[in-house]
Amino acid sequence: MSDVQRQIAERVARLLQPGEIVNLGIGIPTLVADLLTAADGVHLETENGLLGVGPAPDADRIDASLVNAGKRPVTALPGSSYFSSSESFGLIRGGHVTTAVLGALQVDACGRVANWALAGKPILGVGGAMDLLVGAQRVIVATTHTAKSGAPKIVSECSCPLSSDRPVDVVVTEAATFTLDDRGLTLVEVAADFDYAWVRAHTEAAFGSAEEAQL
Fold first, then answer.
1. What is the pLDDT of residues 166-208, one digit of tens each?
2. Backbone angles phi, psi at 51, to 5 degrees
3. One of 47, 87, 174, 212 is an active-site residue; which one?
4. In whole angstroms, what separates CA 197 from the centre of its chain?
5. pLDDT per residue over 35-44, tens digit each?
6. How close are the terminal C-alpha atoms of the chain, in Å?
7. Which domain holds residue 88?
8. What is the pTM of this model?
9. Fewer CB near the last or first residue (10 Å), C or N of the chain?
10. Is 149 helix (H, G, I), strand (E, B) or coil?
11. What is the tally of structural domains in the chain?
């Protein structure tokens, strides 16, 4: 993982609580599994049918039959359970996943996510993001603050197709953490090595600060 990806994953891991059932989406979210320990008490679930996902295995201990929804090798912790994909989606749609951590191509000013297709590009697959956005009790977005082009990923309005009308609860980047409520985005933390001016310059969407939210 790159240093930036690790920083984002570390910031997300700090938001997870003991006892939570957490689904990690493809990309940066999967890195969170490598940063958790048994002492954290977080139970990871993948929509292809495993509850009790552990960190990525060493290269010489890969089991080709143990993969996450993104087909990346994983380990299974003691006490893990296996079930069908349809049962997994039953858990998700039934509201039994405490937190979903998803990647994003864009997040709009209302907290809605676009993460399954680029405008004008072939669609490779929707995956479980739409179900997780509807069914998970809490949704955290883990994404770089800007695209490779340097364009902001937290935008006024998404140009990519939306994954759901349901707004997410938290957006975490390498530079900042935002929460979402009826007023929209609120900046609650600026990461070390960044400052408010950088976040403001690289965020297209309007946002308030935690201090303003308390007024």
1. 999 999 999 999 999 998 999 999 999 999 999 999 999 999 9
2. -115, 120
3. 47
4. 25
5. 999 899 999 9
6. 40
7. 3-213
8. 0.94
9. C
10. coil
11. 1
Pairwise CA distance, residues 145 & 199, whole Å: 9
- Examine the pLDDT at 46 and tell me if it is beyond 70: yes
Residue 174 appears among annotated catalytic residues = no
Calculate the dihedral angle through the C-alpha atoms of 86, 169, 33, 126, rounding to the nearest 10 degrees: 40
Which residue's structure tokens are 């990461």? 191
Mean pLDDT of 9-18: 97
Task: Measure CA 10 to chain center.
Answer: 12
**CA 135 – CA 95 distance, rounded (Å):** 5
Phi, then psi, of 160 in degrees rounded to 5:
-85, 155
Which two three-digit tokens encode residue 57?
């295995």
Residue indicated by tokens 């951590």: 101
CA distance 79 to 82: 10
